[in-house]
Design goal:
CATH architecture of the largest domain in chain B: 3-Layer(aba) Sandwich
CATH topology of the largest domain in chain B: Rossmann fold
Low-confidence stretches of chain B: none
CATH class of the largest domain in chain B: Alpha Beta
Number of helices of chain B: 11
Distance between the termini of chain B: 38 Å
Strand content of chain A: under 5%
Radius of gyration of chain A: 23 Å
Shape of chain B: elongated
Order of helices and strands of chain A: HHHHHHHHHHH
Largest sheet of chain B: 6 strands, mixed
Structural class of chain A: mainly alpha
Order of helices and strands of chain B: EEEHEHEHHHEHEHEEHEHEEHEH
Largest sheet of chain A: none
Shape of chain A: globular
Radius of gyration of chain B: 24 Å
Strand content of chain B: 25-35%
Helix content of chain A: 55-70%
Mean pLDDT of chain A: 90
Oligomer: heterodimer
Low-confidence stretches of chain A: none
CATH superfamily of the largest domain in chain B: P-loop containing nucleotide triphosphate hydrolases
Strand order of the largest sheet of chain B: 5-6-7-3-8-9
């Protein structure tokens, strides 16, 4: 006679631990990050993230390859300084920024699942914080990853900074630069994306609003003789200039003659980051999901 | 068992509109219908129960906690399926259910297991890997129900769960809601404007009208009510002839249509009068039964009382 028994499956009550709002926030962060990167989604959802990451990393891989295969005296003039790596990745950052925040925020409002999220232990602030954290994490892939790869690659080929203190100093600047760029683009893009539930509109706005601000500032300074420090408030260039400044490269060193101090650039980056975040927070506070 | 929800003199204003105006009710175990016309305050009540808004007046307790101060804890123990579409069309049913169970507090592995189990329980085992956008309305409503119960809540709030369903799907959804309460042991608060629907599956009912509770209690008690005793007589044909015969016998009668009439019941002599009239007119009878008061009668009577109108 067999010992096998048939158990009635039926509905099981859950007797385990129930985790709180911090767990819910992490769950939304992780789910959003996967969505942004197209993980577990159809192939077409992976095109933009993969393209952005390839554009950002390929130049660094090429430079590390040059460092590995060319003799020291040949490779030296070919390898760009660390600050210059940001100009190589700026196109990838812009491409990534255009779709990351819209992908993170807009579908939740459009599909209505936001009303379900707000019926969980999450508050509006926690929900938005989880979404912003996911956007920032995704952006770090292109703002921090490539310069970090370049630094580590060169260091492994003995072509990096001389000595441990110098290596650590460069590493610190790269980490700070990556975090600043990620925070800036997160604040601005989340703020803009919070104004619509349509991804395409949000993506276009994330691209064009900074351009419009920059044009307005350019006209004010160059044509209407407004104070030069206003240039610090140009959106994308201002943030990039701040990061270049960390490596000792001044904004305006390209011959325009307008040299903007780091403090002003830092103020500009902070202003736009905080303004974008505040706009998103205000929009989500007012958003009506149920009555 | 203590009540799941206790609301006393609940008030809520949206600008100058008074959505709730002193609603008082309790929700016990089983299925409770929250009944009322559109704009009567049902959805506002659900929002207050979830702690998504704060009441402007009155007191509210959900699972023994105040939603104003314990909103997050309450939302972890309550499931919610809104009236409108709320599921992302490009995500698979299983993923959305598992994700929301995790957000509501279950560990990831547990959430994934329970999502599968619940979708099977609700008859979506084969469909669980399909994107929600490719499903029929009935299937999407079931996914919405699944996400509301996957974390095994103490109470689930369902806002018009049969909206947009055809009669067959509606029947199936009502059967599932009843199963959720009576087999799975999850208390259900079912918001609906469809009286007949609530009458069929609810154990208790709360009727709202213009933000006020106009009736509350068990469906059976409310149906018993205090209305006049009446008999419903169904015949093959000739209800009008039968009506005339009964009137001649001094029995109060209302002809409903060619085959039905309602007779005021005054005791056994009413049966005798009906029997005699049927025999005299040679009308074949189909059924004679005490007329059951419906929730619609209760709702209309309560509405009349609230507005001071004459009873119908």
């Amino acid at each position: 006679m067999s010992d096998a028994q048939i158990f009635e499956g039926g509905y099981r009550r859950y007797e385990g631990q129930r985790l709180g709002a911090a767990h819910a926030t992490r769950a939304v962060w992780s789910h959003t990050l996967r969505r942004i990167l197209g993980l577990g989604r159809p192939a077409r959802s992976k095109i933009l993230p993969v393209l952005s990451i390839v554009i950002a990393y390929v130049p660094m891989v090429v430079f590390v390859g040059l460092a590995a295969f060319l003799p020291a005296n040949v490779r030296e003039p070919l390898l760009p300084p660390y600050a210059l790596t940001y100009t190589f990745i700026s196109a990838a950052i812009l491409l990534f920024v255009i779709f990351v925040a819209p992908e993170a925020l807009c579908p939740d409002r459009r599909s209505g699942i936001l009303s379900l999220y707000l019926a969980t232990p999450l508050t509006r602030t926690r929900y938005l914080a989880a979404k912003a954290a996911a956007v920032a994490t995704a952006l770090l892939l292109v703002t921090l990853g490539p310069p970090l790869l370049y630094l580590i690659g060169l260091a492994l080929q003995s072509a990096g900074p001389d000595g441990f203190p110098s290596f650590m100093a460069t590493l610190g600047k790269i980490v700070l630069g990556g975090v600043v760029l990620s925070a800036f683009y997160t604040g601005v893009s989340v703020g803009i994306a919070s104004c619509t539930d349509r991804r395409a509109v949000a993506g276009a706005a994330v691209f064009f609003v900074p351009q419009a601000v920059n044009i307005a500032l350019g006209i004010s300074v160059f044509a209407l003789s407004a104070p030069e420090w206003l240039i610090a408030f140009t959106m994308n260039q201002g943030a990039l200039a701040f990061v270049l400044g960390l490596f000792g490269e001044g904004f305006g060193d390209d011959g325009t003659g307008y040299v903007v101090p780091m403090v002003a650039l830092g103020a500009g980056v902070t202003l736009w980051t905080v303004a974008g975040g505040t706009l998103a927070w205000w929009r989500y506070r007012r958003l009506q999901v149920t009555r | 068992m203590p009540p799941v929800v206790v609301a006393e003199s609940l008030q809520k204003n949206w600008g100058s509109t008074r959505a709730l105006d002193g609603a008082t009710f309790t929700v016990g175990s089983g299925v409770t219908g929250l009944l009322g016309a559109n704009g009567s305050g049902k959805t506002t009540t659900l929002g207050l129960l979830l702690g998504m808004h704060n009441p402007d007046g009155g007191t509210l307790s959900v699972l023994g906690m105040d939603p104003r101060t314990h909103g997050s804890e309450i939302r972890g123990l309550v499931g919610y399926a809104p009236e409108h579409d709320a599921l992302p069309p490009d995500v698979r049913a299983y993923e959305v259910v598992a994700h929301l169970a995790e957000v509501r507090g279950l560990p990831r592995r547990e959430a994934a297991g329970r999502a599968s189990d619940v979708l099977f329980e609700l008859g979506l085992g084969e469909e669980r890997l399909r994107p929600v956008g490719t499903m029929s309305t009935g299937q999407r409503q079931r996914v919405k129900l699944a996400q509301a119960i996957a974390h095994d809540p103490e109470l689930v709030l369902l806002d018009e769960p049969t909206n947009g369903l055809d009669p067959v799907q509606r029947e199936e959804m009502l059967r599932l809601v009843r199963r959720v309460a009576h087999e799975m042991g999850i208390n259900v608060l079912l918001s609906s404007h469809l009286l007949e629907e609530v009458e069929r599956i609810a154990d208790d009912v709360v009727i709202l009208d213009q933000g006020r509770t106009v009736a509350a209690g068990s469906v059976v008690d409310l149906q018993r009510g205090e209305g006049p005793a009446e008999l419903l007589v169904e015949v093959d044909d000739g209800a009008r002839r039968l009506g005339k015969a009964l009137s001649a016998a001094r029995v109060s009668v209302t002809v409903v249509d060619a085959s039905r009439l309602v007779v005021a019941f005054a005791g056994d002599e009413t049966y005798d009068a009906i029997r005699d009239a049927l025999a005299e007119e040679e009308i074949p009878v189909r059924r004679i039964a005490h007329r059951r008061e419906t929730l619609e009668d209760v709702f209309l009577a309560a509405g009349d009382a609230a507005t001071g109108a004459a009873p119908r």
